[in-house]
Predict the 3D structure of the following.
Amino acid sequence: MVSPVPLPATPQRTNTASQVAKEMNFPGSDINIGALRKSLPPIVFEKSLALSMFYAVADVTVLAALFQAYRVYLHAAPVWGAAHWAAYVVWANVVGFTMWSLFVVGHDCGHGSFSDVKSLNAVVGHLSHGFLLVPFWPWARSHAQHHAYHNHKDKDMSHVWSTPAEEGNGGKLLKDQPLLIPFAYTFGYLIAGWTDGSHYVPWSKLFRNNRERVQCVISSGVCLAFLGAIRYAAGSWSAFGAGYFVPWCIYNTWLYGVTYLQHHSEGTQVYSNENWTFTTGAVQTVDRVYGFGLLDKLMHNITDGHVVHHLFYTSIPHYRLMDATPVVAESLGKAYRKVEGFPIIEFIKSHVKFSRPHLKWLPEQRIWKMFKQNELKQE
């Protein structure tokens, strides 16, 4: 990968990043996180073990029913006709989507918002993420870094921030066409370690100490155990491919697509040590309403409640996000970002060479900002 372009020389300052952000009037620079917390109804900070378990069990139950339906009606059929293939396409998409919903439950476990019991969070997190081949503790480590430094040019994790000049061949290959999206998160990010370090290998650069390396071995072992059990239950590689791998790729597409769009849209700003603050980074998050009735609810509102999630990621569980969102949206005013409508076209365009947005350095403001390519050509 091409080394990042060095940040242009910064004039000598005595101001803190917070002061610089306020001077530049960056969105979110005037937010007092303590005051915002006090403005929210107390119930949004209440973690209900009963509700958390209900959503976890509900997702698992739906998946179990879907796999049983596949075994009875599709796997048992000696020959597939048009109706079988049509049913399979629907089935695989519903399973992939439900896998993504289950990931969100484990996501709460990683943040500690599932319950106040760390051991229970670890167990449920490993069961939900292990089934999806996501090493829970290493993922929680990198994801916590993402939340702690959202939209920081160098310290944010997962979707790397880079200008076209900084992109390596791998980055260009992924962003210039959408065909690799179903495989990018697990194979590229979790296993190969692009760009934060492998989540499967204990000597990866992701880990800071032996405790984290041991956790990596345990979490990776859980994933491999699930993989072996699923392959054994499938009975053959072809059954494994049709019954698990295909919907798993659809789940990966949902995970990659939703998380990318939560943080990338026209006008998104990215900061450096000089001017980054927690709140200026947080309000660059986008609430997206996917619509179609219950679609956002089925995704546990991680889509349309994501701004609140970034502001209070360790303390508000997913089933309280929508109670807090209207209050936060009103408090943020123009700084609140929301996009409505199923974003399939926007997402595809964001991963096509000639239409994807580009990150550009703005020396006057000393930030990076995302622009449509046609806007850059007009300059």
In short: Strands lie at 269-270, 287-289, 338-340, 358-362, 367-371. Confidence is low (pLDDT under 50) at residues 1-14. The CA atoms of residues 234 and 240 lie 5 Å apart.
